[in-house]
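Hello,

Our lab assistant flagged a job as stuck in the queue for most of the afternoon. It eventually completed. Since we weren't sure the result was trustworthy after the delay, we are filing this so someone can double-check. Below is the sequence as submitted and the structure that was eventually returned. Let us know if re-running is recommended.
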Amino acid sequence: MLIDLKIKNYALIEKLEMNPSPVLNIITGETGAGKSIMLGAIGLLLGNRADTKLLFRQDEKCVIEGVFDISSYSLQEVFAAEDLDFDNQCILRREISPSGKSRAFVNDTPVTLDVIRKIGENLMDIHSQHDTLQLGDTSYQLNILDIYAGNTSAMGNTTFDIYAGNLSYLRKYNESFRQFKKLESDYKKLTDQLAQAQKEHDYHAFLLNELSEANLQETEQDELEEELKQLENAEDIKLKLTQAVQSLTESEFNITSALKDTVHLIGQLAQFGSKYEELRTRTESCMIELNDVAAELEDAERDTEANPERTLEVQERLNLIYTLQRKHQVQTTAELLEIQRELEEKVGSVLNLDTAIANTEKAMKEVEKEVKERAAVLSERRRASFETFEQELYTLVADLGMPNARIVIQHNEVAPTATGTDDINILFSANKGAQPQTLIKAASGGEFSRLMLSIKYMLADKTALPTIVFDEIDTGISGEVAVKVGKMMKQMAQKHQIIAISHLPQIAAQGDSHYFVYKHDTEDRTISRVKKLDEQERINELAHMIAGANPSDNAYQSAKELLSL
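-- returned structure --
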């Protein structure tokens, strides 16, 4: 529950702090005094978008902070899921700078707006006039019915059961449905891929066969190009090799003979010093090396022959490689081999896709069966609650001044959706003899308010939310009905902290704490303030609510009587 609320520099609020009672808190004040402004600030605290136009002073930041006692609620897993430290006291804080930058904190840890919303929706349920209008929406009605039937845990919140370790019926169905939709999407993607792959399969198979038959080797292009140069120039190469051998070994003044003589002559000088011996050794090494070179040249010369057949064979092989490279727009055999590997994968993928499609289809049918089974359980639980829901709601609205009301839940079975296979519509009529119609057509503003309050009352014991905020849910009612509405709120407050903004004295008198919002004029501007009323101040405020600015003695007496009730 909310134990402390601070608002600073927001709209008409310069600085405000309140410590709500754990039960029923009433907020009253004149129209425009700032009651709804407080709700706007709480909305920011729970993750609503910020607007710098709402800053009280444009050169200062706005700070809204709420301290909640969450010791009685199993929210440890909620915090763990968001990687936040859990404490029995939870502090939510929003800061909006003059530049428009917004920051959010949970227990002083910076978080995103999405995280503060997830935490906040487990702490407070704000009911505004917009929610009353939502009652006409069939999906909202279905959510209400699910909460009543125990299919989920809280209004608009199907995650709490998971965190509390109790997977709800709706959540179980929703998980199966999401899994089915994912498998359905995967199946469509795979079948689309197969259709496309089959269109390209023959062409890819042709290209693959062409490359496979070529039996390419990664380095063969360079080797073949070098061999072709040698084959095409064989005669010139052989002539030059012959001349080189002759120059080294066979000519009158050949190099090897000259070196042999040189080695002999230097050897005769070895007795005159070690340096001559070193020179002889080096010269002898040169002679040995040249003899080896000459031998290799002779071998190369013998091996070099014009070979037209081999030349043609190499040319044809290179032409094949060049043709394939041009066809696939690459420069090397390594690139051609990579393309071959890719084509092998594409051709093989058709078979793999067949297997994947079969497996996905099998899994999809299994999950579809589970979806239908869980949808049937969910639908059965919903339909089983129709009669008690209708009767309990009728009893409450009859007590709130609509004794001739009729409430009927219209049900149709539909194809599976994220919420099941049920389409429901709450039909209503307030007058005897009138045929029940959709709420939008049949209910007035005041009837909507009473219907919504009755539904909230019915759901109070079935939700996990500790604090419920009502923003003028008493619209369109008065007199004895207002007294009953106040008592209904009082009963709800025995299990939930209630904060109610009201304009009716009959409801205000039921509060355990009464806060008064008023405008105060300073030298330069008007500001909103709030104060907690003591007993005498409550009597005065109730008397003003009953009779206006100048209440009579009777008004004061009526105020005292309301408080005594």
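-- support follow-up --
The delay was a queue issue, not a problem with the job. The result is valid. The first helix runs from residue 35 to 45. Residues 154-166 have pLDDT under 50 and may be disordered.
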